[in-house]
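Q: Protein singed, please. Structure only.
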Amino acid sequence: MTDFITVADVDELLGSGWAGAGDPVVSVMQANAWLTSKIKRPVPAEVPAEIKQAGAQVAKIASTGDLYKATDRETVSETVSATSGTSVSETYVQGSVALSSGENFALALIYPWTAGTNSIPMVRG
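A: Structure for Protein singed:
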């Protein structure tokens, strides 16, 4: 796991008390694990502000216990019967999870480090 942020970084970005009743050290550790799992491209030695801001957002979510939560499933298809005794049938993607607005914001901030380059390096001989 890479340490992209520290408790001091999050305190600076969100102010002290951001963790509420949560443990700030554990929350930052979870945020770093989350960032490590998402970032697939090299990051400069001095961590960019966007990654630190994303980490702070994720740490705040982690402090409430909502970062690593039970799996919720994304609907693939839904069938509704309009007859008496209406019924609904849903099919889910296995392992999909619902993302909070903070997680979606964090993903947008770190997009340059998560997106593929869509290029293939060529070596000339």
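A: Brief note, in case it's useful. Residues 24-38 form the longest helix (15 residues).
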